[in-house]
Amino acid sequence: MRIGSVVIPGSTVLAPLAGITHLPFRLLARAQGCGLVCSEMISANGLHHGSPKTIRLMESIAGEKPLSVQIFGSDPDIMVEAARRVAASGADMLDINFGCSVRKVVKTGAGAALMRRPEDSGRMLRAVRAAIDIPLTIKIRTGWDPSGDEALFIARLAQDCGVDAVAVHPRTATQGFGGCADWSLIHRVKRAVSIPVIGNGDIETPEDALRMFDSTGCDAVMVGRAAIGYPWIFSGIEAAVHGRPVPDVTPAMRITAMTRYLNDVVRSIGEAHACRMMRSRLGWFAKGLPHAGQFRASLHHLSSREEALDKIAGYGALLSAS
Ligand SMILES: Cc1cc2nc3c(=O)[nH]c(=O)nc-3n(C[C@H](O)[C@H](O)[C@H](O)COP(=O)(O)O)c2cc1C
User: Fold this and answer.
1) Are residues 213 and 147 part of one domain?
2) Total domain count for the chain?
3) Of 193, 213, 241, which closes a domain?
């Protein structure tokens, strides 16, 4: 797949996940062949005010590229300024969030609220498109009405405004994450536009991804929750797409990934903060495995990198013995 001038090496995309898809997490996805990684959503207002915390969310290194940085906001001038900052940061593409339905975001006119104000959204998209040279994408939901008409309208509008690709998470704004994603809408969007369409929602296994490709004709699949603690979802999908057997994930591979994640997070935010974060996050990698509860409990008071490495090694030994 190609998005504007950027060639995506593969057919998978890591979904933006607020509070989760920081640089160390994205590196795990890239190491498993994910074709395009996305930052978590970044406030255009925060960039406008020069908030150091917000600016840090754009932290990137060459090894994770191509990187898409997602922003949210609604004011066209502020969005243009934020888009320029993202482009200047070295991001390979800019994504605008049209799907977030959290109250705090929607009440400012951003996220999914953009889907019910197509005229304003069109003006904003044109202004952003004119301001940057890197590819521009949007990520939408079904909209506010379950018919999907808003999604079709916004996707066509985006294409007319020069947007280079659209990601579709086919749940309504009021649905949150309940019920099932309605993949038939991805198919309808794919038929309605000629730019690449990235399908998203409820992919948990490589077989799910194949079903989404088959039933929707989408150009790539985007995976969010299933990648949390399981970056091998990307290598599994790539294998399945090419008709190869999906490789087994061994305990040793999980231990290596946990160790890498720990070390990268320590490097990124410092040992003390990283250890607090790892108390819940290392457990992600043990989901569904024997002794996962015991491993998670052992992390409650984690306070140093050395201690974390010990716990990881101990869990590895437990897994190998069972
Ligand atoms: C914890 C969490 C954070 C999310 N943050 C964002 C975000 O920052 N931007 C965005 O466009 N979507 C966000 N989403 C939605 C996901 O990108 C994705 O559309 C959704 O989870 C459906 O895909 P999945 O079934 O593969 O998880 C978030 C979802 C979750 C669960």
Assistant:
1) yes
2) 2
3) 241
Assess whether the C-beta atom of 139 lies below 6 angstroms from ligand 1: yes
pLDDT along the chain (322 residues), means of 10: 96 98 98 98 97 96 97 98 98 98 97 97 98 98 97 98 98 95 98 98 98 98 98 98 96 95 97 97 95 96 97 93 84
Per DSSP bridges, beta strands 6-7 and 2-3 are: antiparallel
Q: Do residues 143 and 115 touch, judged by C-beta distance below 8 A?
A: yes
Q: Which of 225, 233, 234 to mutate to test the pocket of ligand 1 (most atoms within 8 A of CB)?
A: 225
The model's pTM is 0.97
How far is Cα 233 from Cα 238, in angstroms, rounded to an integer?
A: 9
Strands 67-72 and 93-98: parallel
**Domain hosting residue 43, numbered range:** 2-241
Contact yes or no for 30/46 (Cβ under 8 A): no
Please work out whether the CB of residue 150 comes within 6 Å of at least one atom of ligand 1. Answer: no
Task: Give the start-end residues of each E strand in the chain.
Answer: 2-3, 6-7, 12-14, 37-38, 42-43, 67-72, 93-98, 136-143, 165-172, 197-200, 220-223
Residue 141 CA, closest ligand 1 atom number: 19
What 3-state class would DSSP assign to 30? helix
- Asked whether 170 lines ligand 1 (CB < 6 A), one says no
